[in-house]
Amino acid sequence: MVDRTGARIGRIDDVFLDRHTGRPAWAAVKTGLLGARNTLVPISAALLNPTAEVQVPFARDQVKAAPAIEPNEALSRDLERSLWTHYGISGYARSSGSCSARSGTLPNARPPSSRAGST
């Protein structure tokens, strides 16, 4: 994943799908020293740039400062609310707690009540 200027943020580890639409809503990105931290990034406005990187409309520092999530942690309503606030996205009350389905495309994919595997 890269930021709005093309600066590398980190590697996408998982994808959360919106339970109502089945569309990707959040990406868990490995950030920090040696990718030791998972940060969630909203990807509804993400683009696939010409070099096949997922590009999001946020600054790298904003993504790295977002609340972290543990690798096997489900996306709670409280965490989702704090993420919407962190990224300055309105309308979070409508979709709060709506992300939990998975695609099952990776060997580390978790049960339907948790996250979607993707790289």
User: What's the gyration radius in Å?
Assistant: 13 Å
CA-CA gap between termini: 10 Å
| Percent helix range | 10-25%
Give the overall average pLDDT.
76
Strand composition percent: 25-35%
Number of helices: 3
Unreliable stretches covering 5 or more consecutive residues: 93-97, 100-119
- Work out the count of structural domains: 1
The main β sheet shows up as: 5 strands, antiparallel
Strand-and-helix sequence, N→C? EEEEEHHHEE
Oligomer: single chain
Kindly report the CATH topology. SH3 type barrels
CATH class: Mainly Beta
Judging from the principal axes of the Cα atoms, what is the shape? globular
What structural category characterises the helix and strand content? alpha+beta
List keywords for this structure.
alpha+beta, SH3 type barrels, two-stranded antiparallel sheet, disordered C terminus
Can you walk through the features of this model?
The chain is of the alpha+beta class. The protein has one domain: SH3 type barrels. The protein has three helices and seven strands; from the N terminus they run βββββαααββ. The chain has helices at residues 60-64, 77-86, 92-95; strands at 11-18, 24-31, 37-42, 47-48, 54-55, 99-101, 116-117. Strands 1, 2, 3, 6 and 7 form a five-stranded antiparallel β-sheet that branches. A two-stranded antiparallel ribbon has the order 4-5. A hairpin with a 5-residue loop joins strand 4 (47-48) and strand 5 (54-55). The longest helix is centred in the last third of the chain and has 10 residues, at 77-86. The radius of gyration is 13 Å and the shape is globular. The relative contact order is 0.23. The model is unreliable at 93-97 and 100-119 (pLDDT under 50).
